Amino acid sequence: MMGILSFISLILGQLWQAIFGSFLFWVVLALVAVQYRRIAKTRESLFGIKGNSVLIDIASATVYGIAGGIVGSFLLVLTGINLTGLGINYIWPLALLLMLINPRFLCFSYAGGIIALSNLLFGAPSVDVPQLMGLVAILHLVESLLINFSGHVGATPMFTKNASGQLVGGFTLQKFWPIPIVAIAFLSNPSDLALLPAMPDWWPLIKFDQGFALSAVGVLYPFVAGLGYGDLVLAHTPVEKSKISARNLSIYSLILLVLALLASRYGLFKYLAALFAPLGHEAVIYIGQDTELRGKPIFIPPAKGVRVLEAVPNTAAQKAGIKSGDVIYAINGEGVNSKRDIETIIWARPSLLEIEYISYTQKKWQRAFINLRLNQPLGIIAVPEGDETMYTKINTQSLISRIIRKFRKA
């Protein structure tokens, strides 16, 4: 096998081609930009305060997406995922069709699982089931890493009702990443693609049909994917929730990857992997939703003071260090117990605000000093106090959650 540095350089060179050698990456990036623009408009329409610049959100997503693409590329090549036999031409149309049922079904775990089961039960379409399940596992593993490091960024605050009907504050997490990535393919006409270097004896980890190597040339094939993440936060902070979601999704991904590896050697595991791909993903969604809807809510009014749902980015409150979950007890020495109390003090237009609060993360009494200019918003969104008439209705559409609700009713 070629040297490690040469191998890394070869992969990075193909990633460069995926980004700058094709317009597809920029098409995906444009779609991602549209989504972040939509999220920004939603935030502004709900609370009338702008957050981070959309350009910053897009730039951040792009950097994280490229980093995820680097990790995914090495995993795909080292495990030996071969794009040639995965039936991508079948999976994409099916994924788009499933999206019409529910947007979150635009995911290879569902379309890939259905295609794999169809192959196992009916012999068509012709796909390499272990390889396909390996692809699904690695893409979700990359997604779990992206969620862990950036899933909480740009969380959108909201008011909603939990499972008991209580009006609470919370967040929706929505992230999108453009992913340039490299895998292997066996082509009869490799064009100007980089040839697959000599690999060690243990390669590939997930065995594929060696007939490809007899009739075609192995190459490193750059392509572009888009990953998305959506979640609900009621019983945790956005940072805590993104860590939990990343952990659950990584466990799902690693189990599926192991099943794919075993399926490439033992036929029985093909069925297990094909079933686990969609059902395991549904279980991850159900656990995540149920934890938030039935867990103890964080963003509810305290016995005394005003709890912060969000300190809006780039506002006076956020720059002063106030964070989500903090409880404000006094401003300029006057006790506050409602949003109206805070508004009354600010309307008096004091030149300096001394805010006394307890930090949610540090559990310590702190002070923040803010010079608030004329007509400058403080930037604090407080938790709902119970008299709000507008709130977001949460629609839990997990298949598993619907089945469980039917059994509970019975």
Describe the structure in your own words.
The protein has 410 residues and is of the alpha+beta class. The protein folds into two domains: 4-294, no CATH class; 306-382, PDZ domain (Pdz3 Domain), CATH 2.30.42.10. Helix content is 49%, strand content 18%. The protein has twelve helices and nine strands. It has helices spanning 4-20, 24-47, 54-79, 88-101, 108-122, 129-150, 211-215, 238-263, 268-294, 316-319, 339-347, 399-409, and strands at residues 156-161, 167-187, 217-233, 306-311, 327-331, 334-335, 353-358, 365-370, 380-382. The strands form two sheets. Strands 4, 5, 6, 7, 8 and 9 form a six-stranded antiparallel sheet that branches. The mean pLDDT is 88.
Quick overview of this protein structure:
By secondary structure, the chain is of the alpha+beta class. It is 49% helix and 18% strand.
Give the assembly state of these chains: single chain
Rounded mean pLDDT score? 88
Q: What level of helicity do the residues show?
A: 40-55%
The biggest beta sheet reads: 6 strands, antiparallel
Note the main attributes of this structure.
410 residues, alpha+beta, Pdz3 Domain, six-stranded antiparallel β-sheet, three-stranded antiparallel β-sheet, elongated
SSE topology sketch:
Elements lengths: L3 H17 L3 H24 L6 H26 L8 H14 L6 H15 L6 H22 L5 E6 L5 E21 L23 H5 L1 E17 L4 H26 L4 H27 L11 E6 L4 H4 L7 E5 L2 E2 L3 H9 L5 E6 L6 E6 L9 E3 L16 H11 L1
Helix pairs in contact: 1-3, 2-3, 3-6, 4-5, 5-6, 5-9, 6-8, 6-9, 8-9
